[in-house]
Amino acid sequence: MREVETFYLLLHPRPAYLIGSGKVGEKANFMAASWVSPVSEEPPLVGVAIDVNSYTRELIDTYGEFTVNILPLQSLEKLYYAGTVSGRSVDKTKVISYRKGEKVDAPVAEEAIGVVECRVYTSIKTEDVVFYLGEVLSARADERFFGKRSGWDLKKTNLPLHNWGAGFYEVGRLHIVRKGGP
User: Fold this and answer.
1) Backbone phi, then psi, for 74, in 5-degree steps?
2) Is 87 exposed, middle or buried (0-12, 13-18, 19+ CB in 10 A)?
């Protein structure tokens, strides 16, 4: 094996999400993020890493809320767009239709097939990111594509997996491992 300078690429491809920040009626913004993870069931927490210099970080710090929007692969161009321009200079909500969350004032993308609404529980600042732990206040999914017992039905929809830069994969086949091991 050889040394890999950009270590996080070893952890890709990862699902790519749209993070909604701000407050509907005041300032609303979206950014793409793949550094998102469930952290705890009790309390229900989701973690998201946001660049310290980003407009999204400013809005999350100001309003204390955010949404994690799951978009289908068909929305990939909008997802990529949201990750390549700054909300300080471009109003991304002119491209991404949205509404107010049910439990938070942060925006929810109209095209989302799933959404997790969060209130900031705590945060950890490093030199280049703030890792927010968000308390999950609501988690909803389009029942056409998601089942409580089976999760995403990838025969009916597909989710974008971010590899690197402008590169994305779509999810492949489901493999179920035999119980009991090899």
Assistant:
1) -60, -20
2) buried
CB-based burial label for 180 (10 Å; 0-12, 13-18, 19+)? exposed
Size of the chain, expressed as the number of residues it contains = 182
- Say which amino acid occupies 4: V
User: Phi/psi of residue 131, each to 5°?
Assistant: -100, 110
**pTM over the 0.70 mark:** yes
Is residue 111 a contact partner of residue 71, using CB atoms and an 8 Å limit?
A: yes
Closest listed residue to residue 120, CA positions, set 96, 142, 102, 104: 104
Q: Is residue 54's pLDDT more than 90?
A: yes
